[in-house]
Amino acid sequence: MNNNAKQHIFCLIMYFNVIFSRYKYLRWHFSTFKRLGLQGPQPSIIAGNLPEIMKKGQLQAMIDWSKQYGRIFGYYEGWTPVIAVADPQILRQILVKDFDNFRSRKPFPLAPRKALGLFLENGHQWKQSRSILTPAFSTGKIKKMFPIIDNMVDHLEENLNVKSAEAKPFDIYSFYQSLTLDVIGRCAFGLQTNAQTDPKDEFLTNIRFLFSGLSKTCILYLVMLIPIFQYFVFALKNLVIIFGMNPVVWLRNQLREIIRIRKEMGKQRSMTDREIVAQSLTFLLAGYETTSAVLSFLTDLLSRNKAVHDRLCAEIDGVIGEGHVDYDNVQKLPYFDMVVNEICRMYPTASLIVTRQAAESRSYNGVYIPAGMAVQANVWALHHDEQLWQNPEEFIPERFSPQYKEKIVRYSFLPFGAGPRSCIGERFALLEIKLTIVRILKNYRFTRPHDSEKPLELVSRGAIVPRDGVQIRVERRCLS
Ligand code: HEM
Question: Which CDD domains match (predicted)?
Answer without folding.
Answer: CYP3A-like
